[in-house]
Amino acid sequence: MARTSWKETARAWLHPVVRAFDRLGFSPLAVTLTGLGISLLGAWLVAGGRLLWGTAVFLAGSGFDMFDGGLARWQGTASRRGAFLDSVFDRFGEAVYLTGLAVWFMSEQPANWRPAVVLVLVTMFGSLATSYVRARAEGVGETCQVGVLQRTERVLLLGLGGLLGGGVLVVVLAILAVLTLLTTLQRIVHVAAKLPGPDPAARRAHAAARGGGGLEPKERP
Fold first, then answer.
1. Among residues 198, 87, 98, which one has the least CA distance to residue 145?
2. Which residues, 6+ apart, have CB-to-CB distance to 134 below 8 Å?
3. Is the full-model pTM beyond 0.85?
4. Which domains, and CATH codes, for the chain?
5. Cα separation, 17 vs 33, whole angstroms
6. Backbone angles phi, psi at 146, to 5 degrees
């Protein structure tokens, strides 16, 4: 409830920007792709050794995610296709930024890059797994928005670590690695608890078939 209230407040504050995009002739997809392009530029800068500037650019690109949905609602063009593309491109931007971080660690810390890169990879896995569990849940007709760490929080933590750099970045990655895996586990448990298990009638029928000669027992030698 608190997260929903926060998002509604943010939408109200950002509505003038949404209307500005509309006046400039942007479509929601154009806003999404612009944000993705800026995020990819930020990842490229990070991989090239410009951690501070690259992270700032990545955060700017990720910020476009706050506008495309609002623009779609304002223009009356909201659709499941748009929501699908928005979600997919968001994950692309996040994954490429994490890849840029891995490259940065390997080039800037040649003597001690392995632990940090492992944390980057675990964070990337947890981020993608979190999204995958939600997508599979929705594919079987269930909703899944639980978890201690949503995308907004992940991006903000990544941005904080990237801007501060050094040991703070490593600590942030360790926190993200743990919390993304925890969120994935939370979602798995949440969805599995809501889905029905085996049909009791089918199990009784199977047991009756086995006990009533449905399967011929093998003769003992």
1. 87
2. 144, 145, 187
3. no
4. 8-195 (1.20.120.1760)
5. 17
6. -85, 170
